[in-house]
Automatic annotation (TrEMBL):
This is Xyloglucan endotransglucosylase/hydrolase. The lineage of its organism: Eukaryota, Viridiplantae, Streptophyta, Embryophyta, Tracheophyta. It comes from Protea cynaroides. Its EC number is 2.4.1.207. Residues 1-215 form the GH16 domain. The keyword GTP-binding does not apply. Its main location: secreted. Gene3D superfamilies: 2.60.120.200. It is an enzyme of class 2 (transferase). Belongs to the glycosyl hydrolase 16 family.
Protein backbone atom coordinates (compact mmCIF):
# COMPACT_ATOMS: atom_id res chain seq x y z
CA UNK A 1 0.00 0.00 0.00
CA UNK A 2 2.75 2.43 1.06
CA UNK A 3 4.67 1.83 -2.16
CA UNK A 4 1.51 2.31 -4.20
CA UNK A 5 0.84 5.71 -2.63
CA UNK A 6 4.44 6.70 -3.09
CA UNK A 7 4.23 5.74 -6.76
CA UNK A 8 1.02 7.75 -7.17
CA UNK A 9 2.62 10.73 -5.52
CA UNK A 10 5.66 10.36 -7.75
CA UNK A 11 3.48 10.14 -10.90
CA UNK A 12 1.46 13.15 -9.75
CA UNK A 13 4.57 15.25 -9.13
CA UNK A 14 6.00 14.18 -12.47
CA UNK A 15 2.83 15.03 -14.42
CA UNK A 16 2.46 18.31 -12.53
CA UNK A 17 6.03 19.22 -13.36
CA UNK A 18 5.53 18.44 -17.03
CA UNK A 19 2.32 20.44 -17.27
CA UNK A 20 3.69 23.53 -15.58
CA UNK A 21 6.89 23.55 -17.60
CA UNK A 22 4.88 23.57 -20.85
CA UNK A 23 6.35 20.31 -22.11
CA UNK A 24 3.04 18.87 -23.21
CA UNK A 25 0.87 19.73 -26.20
CA UNK A 26 1.83 19.88 -29.84
CA UNK A 27 5.28 21.00 -30.86
CA UNK A 28 5.84 24.12 -32.93
CA UNK A 29 6.08 22.23 -36.23
CA UNK A 30 2.67 20.65 -35.94
CA UNK A 31 0.70 23.90 -36.21
CA UNK A 32 3.19 26.63 -37.11
CA UNK A 33 6.01 27.47 -39.48
CA UNK A 34 8.60 30.21 -39.84
CA UNK A 35 7.50 32.98 -42.21
CA UNK A 36 10.22 35.61 -41.74
CA UNK A 37 13.90 35.68 -40.75
CA UNK A 38 14.40 31.91 -40.58
CA UNK A 39 17.99 32.30 -39.39
CA UNK A 40 16.65 34.40 -36.48
CA UNK A 41 14.22 31.73 -35.24
CA UNK A 42 15.34 28.89 -33.01
CA UNK A 43 13.24 25.99 -31.79
CA UNK A 44 14.28 24.58 -28.41
CA UNK A 45 13.07 21.92 -25.96
CA UNK A 46 11.85 19.54 -28.69
CA UNK A 47 9.86 22.31 -30.35
CA UNK A 48 7.95 23.22 -27.17
CA UNK A 49 9.58 26.63 -27.13
CA UNK A 50 10.63 28.99 -29.90
CA UNK A 51 12.93 31.96 -29.67
CA UNK A 52 12.48 34.90 -32.03
CA UNK A 53 15.43 37.24 -32.45
CA UNK A 54 15.87 40.67 -33.97
CA UNK A 55 19.05 42.51 -34.86
CA UNK A 56 19.92 45.19 -37.37
CA UNK A 57 19.83 42.72 -40.26
CA UNK A 58 16.34 41.29 -39.62
CA UNK A 59 13.44 40.62 -37.31
CA UNK A 60 11.59 37.32 -37.38
CA UNK A 61 8.16 35.76 -37.34
CA UNK A 62 6.08 32.61 -37.27
CA UNK A 63 2.56 31.87 -38.50
CA UNK A 64 0.04 29.07 -38.21
CA UNK A 65 -0.04 26.72 -41.17
CA UNK A 66 -3.83 26.91 -41.34
CA UNK A 67 -6.41 29.69 -41.41
CA UNK A 68 -9.36 29.73 -39.00
CA UNK A 69 -12.93 31.00 -38.92
CA UNK A 70 -13.44 31.18 -35.12
CA UNK A 71 -11.65 30.13 -31.97
CA UNK A 72 -9.78 31.14 -28.88
CA UNK A 73 -6.17 31.65 -29.87
CA UNK A 74 -3.27 32.00 -27.49
CA UNK A 75 0.46 32.31 -27.15
CA UNK A 76 2.60 32.21 -24.03
CA UNK A 77 5.18 34.95 -24.48
CA UNK A 78 8.20 36.17 -22.56
CA UNK A 79 9.17 39.53 -24.00
CA UNK A 80 12.71 40.79 -24.61
CA UNK A 81 14.42 42.18 -21.50
CA UNK A 82 16.58 45.24 -20.89
CA UNK A 83 16.44 48.36 -23.04
CA UNK A 84 13.84 47.50 -25.68
CA UNK A 85 12.77 50.95 -26.85
CA UNK A 86 11.67 50.76 -30.49
CA UNK A 87 11.18 47.00 -30.38
CA UNK A 88 7.70 45.60 -30.99
CA UNK A 89 6.56 42.07 -30.30
CA UNK A 90 3.23 41.35 -31.99
CA UNK A 91 0.79 38.50 -31.55
CA UNK A 92 -2.15 38.70 -33.94
CA UNK A 93 -4.71 37.13 -36.19
CA UNK A 94 -4.79 38.35 -39.77
CA UNK A 95 -6.55 37.47 -43.01
CA UNK A 96 -3.59 38.92 -44.93
CA UNK A 97 -5.96 39.88 -47.76
CA UNK A 98 -6.18 43.31 -49.40
CA UNK A 99 -9.10 44.60 -47.34
CA UNK A 100 -7.89 42.68 -44.34
CA UNK A 101 -9.42 41.68 -41.04
CA UNK A 102 -6.91 41.72 -38.21
CA UNK A 103 -6.82 41.51 -34.40
CA UNK A 104 -3.57 42.79 -32.87
CA UNK A 105 -1.64 42.59 -29.65
CA UNK A 106 1.40 44.87 -29.97
CA UNK A 107 3.84 45.03 -27.07
CA UNK A 108 5.74 48.30 -27.21
CA UNK A 109 9.28 48.03 -25.90
CA UNK A 110 10.67 50.70 -23.60
CA UNK A 111 13.82 51.90 -21.89
CA UNK A 112 14.99 49.61 -19.10
CA UNK A 113 12.95 50.12 -15.95
CA UNK A 114 10.13 51.93 -17.77
CA UNK A 115 6.68 50.33 -18.02
CA UNK A 116 5.60 48.30 -21.02
CA UNK A 117 2.55 49.41 -22.97
CA UNK A 118 0.31 46.99 -24.79
CA UNK A 119 -1.52 48.32 -27.81
CA UNK A 120 -4.46 46.49 -29.35
CA UNK A 121 -6.21 47.17 -32.63
CA UNK A 122 -9.09 45.76 -34.64
CA UNK A 123 -9.17 45.90 -38.44
CA UNK A 124 -12.29 45.11 -40.42
CA UNK A 125 -12.15 45.13 -44.21
CA UNK A 126 -8.90 47.10 -44.14
CA UNK A 127 -10.25 49.71 -41.71
CA UNK A 128 -8.25 50.00 -38.48
CA UNK A 129 -7.68 53.20 -36.48
CA UNK A 130 -9.10 51.48 -33.40
CA UNK A 131 -6.08 51.64 -31.11
CA UNK A 132 -6.34 51.14 -27.38
CA UNK A 133 -3.35 51.06 -25.06
CA UNK A 134 -2.85 49.78 -21.54
CA UNK A 135 0.11 49.96 -19.19
CA UNK A 136 1.03 46.44 -18.09
CA UNK A 137 0.86 45.86 -14.31
CA UNK A 138 3.77 43.39 -14.31
CA UNK A 139 7.11 42.99 -16.05
CA UNK A 140 6.30 40.95 -19.20
CA UNK A 141 10.01 40.30 -19.79
CA UNK A 142 10.47 38.58 -16.42
CA UNK A 143 8.35 35.55 -17.22
CA UNK A 144 5.89 33.93 -19.63
CA UNK A 145 2.33 35.24 -19.65
CA UNK A 146 -0.65 33.97 -21.58
CA UNK A 147 -2.14 36.24 -24.24
CA UNK A 148 -5.41 35.16 -25.86
CA UNK A 149 -7.96 36.30 -28.41
CA UNK A 150 -11.50 34.93 -28.36
CA UNK A 151 -13.28 35.27 -31.68
CA UNK A 152 -16.82 34.11 -32.25
CA UNK A 153 -19.84 35.62 -34.03
CA UNK A 154 -20.82 37.67 -30.97
CA UNK A 155 -17.66 39.18 -29.53
CA UNK A 156 -13.91 39.47 -29.74
CA UNK A 157 -12.10 39.54 -26.41
CA UNK A 158 -8.41 40.17 -25.79
CA UNK A 159 -7.12 38.58 -22.58
CA UNK A 160 -3.91 39.05 -20.61
CA UNK A 161 -3.60 35.85 -18.59
CA UNK A 162 -7.29 35.41 -17.76
CA UNK A 163 -8.12 39.13 -17.53
CA UNK A 164 -10.14 40.72 -20.36
CA UNK A 165 -8.42 43.90 -21.50
CA UNK A 166 -10.53 44.64 -24.55
CA UNK A 167 -13.92 43.70 -25.94
CA UNK A 168 -15.14 44.32 -29.49
CA UNK A 169 -18.80 43.43 -29.79
CA UNK A 170 -20.46 42.48 -33.05
CA UNK A 171 -22.42 45.55 -34.09
CA UNK A 172 -23.06 44.64 -37.70
CA UNK A 173 -26.72 45.48 -36.97
CA UNK A 174 -25.72 49.17 -36.86
CA UNK A 175 -23.35 48.89 -39.82
CA UNK A 176 -20.03 48.38 -38.02
CA UNK A 177 -17.71 45.91 -39.74
CA UNK A 178 -16.93 42.69 -37.89
CA UNK A 179 -14.04 40.33 -38.71
CA UNK A 180 -15.40 37.44 -40.76
CA UNK A 181 -12.58 36.49 -43.12
CA UNK A 182 -10.49 33.42 -42.34
CA UNK A 183 -7.41 34.45 -40.35
CA UNK A 184 -4.10 32.87 -39.44
CA UNK A 185 -2.20 33.23 -36.15
CA UNK A 186 1.05 35.20 -36.33
CA UNK A 187 3.80 36.24 -33.92
CA UNK A 188 6.58 38.62 -34.96
CA UNK A 189 9.45 40.59 -33.47
CA UNK A 190 10.33 43.73 -35.41
CA UNK A 191 11.83 47.19 -35.36
CA UNK A 192 9.23 49.94 -35.02
CA UNK A 193 11.45 52.75 -33.76
CA UNK A 194 9.60 55.31 -35.89
CA UNK A 195 6.46 55.05 -33.68
CA UNK A 196 6.61 52.50 -30.87
CA UNK A 197 8.24 54.29 -27.95
CA UNK A 198 7.20 57.79 -26.87
CA UNK A 199 5.60 58.30 -30.27
CA UNK A 200 8.87 57.41 -32.03
CA UNK A 201 11.08 59.82 -30.11
CA UNK A 202 13.12 57.05 -28.49
CA UNK A 203 14.93 54.95 -31.07
CA UNK A 204 16.16 51.37 -31.00
CA UNK A 205 19.54 51.03 -29.29
CA UNK A 206 21.26 48.52 -31.54
CA UNK A 207 24.12 47.97 -29.10
CA UNK A 208 21.47 46.01 -27.11
CA UNK A 209 20.77 43.63 -30.01
CA UNK A 210 19.96 40.83 -30.54
CA UNK A 211 16.55 41.25 -28.90
CA UNK A 212 14.86 37.95 -28.07
CA UNK A 213 11.26 36.94 -27.42
CA UNK A 214 10.36 33.45 -26.18
CA UNK A 215 7.17 31.65 -27.20
CA UNK A 216 5.32 28.61 -25.87
CA UNK A 217 1.90 27.01 -26.29
CA UNK A 218 1.52 25.89 -29.89
CA UNK A 219 -1.82 24.17 -29.53
CA UNK A 220 -4.62 25.97 -31.41
CA UNK A 221 -8.28 26.01 -30.38
CA UNK A 222 -9.69 27.11 -33.71
CA UNK A 223 -12.06 26.07 -36.48
CA UNK A 224 -9.89 25.56 -39.59
CA UNK A 225 -11.35 27.35 -42.61
CA UNK A 226 -10.32 29.16 -45.74
CA UNK A 227 -13.62 30.88 -46.44
CA UNK A 228 -15.31 34.06 -45.22
CA UNK A 229 -18.14 33.60 -42.71
CA UNK A 230 -17.87 29.82 -42.68
CA UNK A 231 -21.18 28.50 -41.26
CA UNK A 232 -19.37 25.40 -39.95
CA UNK A 233 -17.15 27.66 -37.82
CA UNK A 234 -20.20 29.21 -36.11
CA UNK A 235 -21.46 25.83 -34.87
CA UNK A 236 -21.84 25.35 -31.11
CA UNK A 237 -19.99 22.07 -31.47
CA UNK A 238 -17.03 24.41 -30.93
CA UNK A 239 -17.17 25.36 -27.25
CA UNK A 240 -16.06 28.98 -27.80
CA UNK A 241 -19.26 29.55 -29.81
CA UNK A 242 -21.56 28.60 -26.92
CA UNK A 243 -23.75 31.12 -25.19
CA UNK A 244 -21.51 31.60 -22.16
CA UNK A 245 -18.90 33.05 -24.56
CA UNK A 246 -21.25 35.56 -26.18
CA UNK A 247 -20.53 38.17 -23.51
CA UNK A 248 -18.35 38.59 -20.44
CA UNK A 249 -19.53 36.94 -17.24
CA UNK A 250 -19.90 39.16 -14.11
CA UNK A 251 -16.39 38.38 -12.82
CA UNK A 252 -14.87 39.21 -16.19
CA UNK A 253 -16.92 42.40 -16.41
CA UNK A 254 -15.59 43.65 -13.11
CA UNK A 255 -11.99 42.67 -13.99
CA UNK A 256 -12.38 44.49 -17.31
CA UNK A 257 -13.81 47.60 -15.61
CA UNK A 258 -10.80 47.56 -13.28
CA UNK A 259 -8.35 47.43 -16.22
CA UNK A 260 -10.12 50.29 -18.00
CA UNK A 261 -10.12 52.41 -14.86
CA UNK A 262 -6.56 51.76 -13.70
CA UNK A 263 -4.45 50.81 -16.71
CA UNK A 264 -5.95 52.15 -19.91
CA UNK A 265 -3.77 55.01 -21.15
CA UNK A 266 -5.30 55.53 -24.58
CA UNK A 267 -8.68 54.80 -26.10
CA UNK A 268 -9.50 55.88 -29.65
CA UNK A 269 -13.15 56.15 -28.63
CA UNK A 270 -12.23 59.09 -26.39
CA UNK A 271 -9.82 60.80 -28.80
CA UNK A 272 -11.83 63.86 -29.78
CA UNK A 273 -8.84 65.36 -31.61
CA UNK A 274 -8.91 62.47 -33.98
CA UNK A 275 -12.63 61.88 -34.27
CA UNK A 276 -15.12 64.72 -34.18
CA UNK A 277 -17.67 62.26 -32.93
CA UNK A 278 -16.86 58.78 -31.65
CA UNK A 279 -16.85 56.01 -34.28
CA UNK A 280 -20.20 54.14 -34.29
CA UNK A 281 -18.97 51.13 -32.29
CA UNK A 282 -17.94 53.40 -29.40
CA UNK A 283 -20.16 54.57 -26.52
CA UNK A 284 -21.98 57.63 -27.95
C1 LIG B 1 22.77 52.16 -25.77
O1 LIG B 1 23.24 51.11 -24.96
C2 LIG B 1 24.57 51.29 -24.51
C3 LIG B 1 25.02 50.00 -23.81
O2 LIG B 1 24.20 49.74 -22.68
C4 LIG B 1 24.66 52.52 -23.63
O3 LIG B 1 25.99 52.72 -23.20
C5 LIG B 1 24.15 53.73 -24.42
O4 LIG B 1 24.10 54.86 -23.57
C6 LIG B 1 22.78 53.47 -24.98
N1 LIG B 1 22.41 54.56 -25.89
C7 LIG B 1 21.31 55.27 -25.73
C8 LIG B 1 21.06 56.33 -26.75
O5 LIG B 1 20.53 55.07 -24.80
C1 LIG C 1 -6.51 26.21 -46.73
O1 LIG C 1 -5.66 26.33 -47.86
C2 LIG C 1 -4.35 25.85 -47.65
C3 LIG C 1 -3.53 26.18 -48.88
O2 LIG C 1 -4.24 25.88 -50.06
C4 LIG C 1 -4.41 24.35 -47.34
O3 LIG C 1 -3.12 23.86 -47.10
C5 LIG C 1 -5.27 24.13 -46.10
O4 LIG C 1 -5.41 22.78 -45.80
C6 LIG C 1 -6.65 24.78 -46.27
N1 LIG C 1 -7.32 24.70 -44.99
C7 LIG C 1 -8.60 24.36 -44.88
C8 LIG C 1 -9.14 24.32 -43.49
O5 LIG C 1 -9.30 24.09 -45.82
Amino acid sequence: MGTFYLLCLFAWVLVGGILTSGETGPSFDQNYHVVWGSDHVRSVRQGREVRLAMDKSSGSGIASKLYYGSGIFHMRIKLPGGDTAGVVTAFYLTSGSNAHDELDFEFLGNLEGQPWFLQTNVFTNGLGNREQRIRLWYDPAADFHLYSILWNEHQIVFFVDKTPIRVFNNKENIGVGYPSQAMQVVTTLWDAEDWATDGGQIKTNWTQAPFKAYLQGFDINGCPSNITNSPACHSTKYWWNREQFWSLNPNQQSAYADVKKNYMTYDYCLDTKRFEKPPPECPQ
